[in-house]
Amino acid sequence: MIEAKYPLKESSSSSYLQRTEWNVRDSDGIVVFSLAPKLTGGSLKTVEFARKHGKPLIHISAVDPDPAGRLQRFLEDNVIDTLNVAGPRKSKEPGSTREVVAGPICCNASVGRRTIRSCTGHG
Questions:
Q1: CA 46 to CA 42: how far, in whole Å?
Q2: How many domains does the chain have?
């Protein structure tokens, strides 16, 4: 169950592409976590929607030498109150760490005096 303090709006569509685009549209920035350096499927669509809507975006993969530093710089360089956390589903990328990383980022991400208010995304 999602806590009431998170202001969620349910999509009227069952289309995952519409939900993905709305998550991008309604966020201030996007981080995509993956094991592989090349994105496909819904994660690639997230990147395309971010470009379409002019949203700041960072893709962090398992091959990045300094993922935490890159994410910190991204958050420092952009004004983000609502962060869209995306990445491949477990069924598409077994062993994915998105679920492990996304929770602490959503709950604890801060930059200076700012704190990330909320996260959007889907599994």
A1: 6
A2: 1
Tokens of 73: 């710089």
Residue 31: CATH number of its domain = 3.40.50.450
**pLDDT per residue of the chain (123 residues) written in tens, 0 to 9:** 567 776 666 777 788 898 899 989 989 999 998 888 899 999 999 999 999 999 999 998 888 888 888 888 898 899 888 888 888 876 666 565 554 454 444 444 555 555 555 555 544
- In the 8-state DSSP scheme, what is residue 46? H
**Separation of first and last alpha carbons in the chain:** 14
Q: Where are the alpha helices (DSSP H) in 26-62?
A: 41-52
